[in-house]
Amino acid sequence: MQMKYGKGLVMKTTCIAALxxxxxxxxxxxxxxxxxxxxxxxxxxxxxFIVNTHDQELPLDGWRFSTQNSTxxxxxxxxxxxxxxxxxxxxxxxxxxxxxxxxxxxxxFNASDIGPFAPFEMDAYSMSFYxxxxxxxxxxxxxxxxxxxxxxxxxxxxLELDNESMIxxxxxxxxxxxxxxxxxxxxxxIIELTDRDNVELHSPDDYNVIxxxxxxISDDGELNFFDISLFLxxxxxxxxxxxxxxxxxxxxxxxxxxxxxxxxxxxx
Length: 268
Prior knowledge:
This protein is α+β, with helices and mostly antiparallel strands. Helix content is 26%, strand content 23%. The chain has 3 domains: 1-33; 35-211, Immunoglobulin-like; 213-268, no CATH class. The protein has a 6-stranded mixed sheet. Strands 5-4-9-10-11 form a 5-stranded mixed sheet, covered by helices on one side. A two-stranded antiparallel ribbon has the order 3-6. The longest helix is centred in the first third of the chain and has 32 residues, at 2-33.
């Protein structure tokens, strides 16, 4: 009996060890692919910067984008658009929506060559990047295949996007809430990821947005009562637009800095 018990214990231990190795292997595979992250979005130029934070190169065969703007509906890039593209370790992968990528940079691409994409805009936009499954297919509702996600909109418009990728991003632990957007303006220069610790879960609080005129919350090119009213509303809602001090808190310092910015005029 002791001998049978011993064999059973060895077999059970072996099975557990094997399952553990399989689980770790699966985790490492996802982790390596998710080391590709959206780092910067240049509003004026329509450029998207994606960085491979991994120590190994990442081939993008079969990878696909899902994008949507305020009027386009969901647009999926072609299944073979990224075949043959390899992002080097700690290298940058750039997409140029204005199609002015330089030919002498192997990881700079025109959106028209690797799309299709929803036309780039600041009004409202969501962008998700996926790697294929073992069969080479991409299920856009499967968050386990999602590499990274980002979404923004103009605060004053309050437009809502609705697509399966936004839901999948939350389920995958890549975006905090499908209702949360990075607040931007028409004259947004850059959306910059400030969290560079390779954390997968992000929210609007993790981004620094640079505008031409920060106190112009109404986004109409003028500073007046409407901007003050919108600031107070954003402050009450604890919207990142009202976090003028950019410390993640909403307090007297934000109000004080906003009043100073109004007095200083633009640019701020």
